[in-house]
Amino acid sequence: MHSGKAFGLLKSQQEEKLNGINEAFLTDPKYEGEEDLASKLEMFKKKYMEFDLNDKGEIDIMGLKRMLEKLGLAKTHLELKKMMAEVVGSSSKDTISYNDFLNMMLGKRNAILKLILMFEGMAKEEEQKEVGPPRRKTFSDLP
Questions:
Q1: Which whole number is the average pLDDT over 62-79?
Q2: What is the 3-state secondary structure of 102-124?
Q3: 47, 87, 85, 95: which is closest to 67 by C-alpha?
Q4: Whether 104 contacts 93, CB under 8 Å
Q5: What is the pLDDT of residues 74-111, one digit of tens each?
Q6: Rounded distance, CA 138 to CA 2, Å?
Q7: Residue 60 phi, psi (nearest 5)
Q8: Considering only CA atoms, which of 63, 58, 73 is closest in space to residue 123?
Q9: Beta-carbon neighbour count of residue 42 at 10 Å?
Q10: Angle formed by the axes of helices 112-129 and 77-88, to 10°?
């Protein structure tokens, strides 16, 4: 296991690297028309860092497997490979880099992984909305 301090350092180095990539995306003419690009990139970065990243700061098949299991979506090795290939556009690469991840999240194609993450994000927001105490029913609510 990583010691906490080294792990913290690794995380902050990873985050710096991801911030640099976000900067590049912000100035990429390809994404000029994208609404709220900066806040989307910030959100995608947080999401990416929720994965167990390998030492290169990329998502490997085990990282993908663990993340999906956390979401209650266990997948077979073959399904995972398919999902990765769909994101990176080839089956020869066995990791998803942050660039691949952003291209997926911002791209027009609906990769399965993108749909899962978007859906999970929406589910989370829904949960947060319903945190307050339930509204007391009033007479005007009665049918």
A1: 94
A2: HHHHHCCCCCHHHHHHHHHHHHH
A3: 47
A4: no
A5: 999 999 999 999 999 887 888 999 999 999 999 888 89
A6: 55
A7: -100, 180
A8: 73
A9: 14
A10: 100
State the DSSP code for 75.
Answer: -
- Helix (H), strand (E) counts: the chain: 6, 2
Q: What is the distance in angstroms between the CA of the first residue and the CA of the last residue of the chain?
A: 59
**Structure tokens that stand for 140 in this block:** 């005007």
Cβ neighbours for 67, distance < 8 A, ≥ 6 positions apart: 50, 51, 52, 59
CA 59 to chain centre: 10
Alpha-carbon distance of 121 to 123, in angstroms, equals 5
Measured at the CA of 48, the angle between CA 45 and CA 53, to 5 degrees, comes to 130
18 C-beta neighbours (distance < 10 Å), count: 23
Please count the other Cβ atoms lying within 10 Å of the Cβ belonging to residue 41: 23
Query: Contact 54/60 with Cβ under 8 angstroms?
Result: yes
Strand positions, DSSP E, the chain: 59-60, 95-96
Structure tokens at 62: 């085990």
- Model-level pTM? 0.80
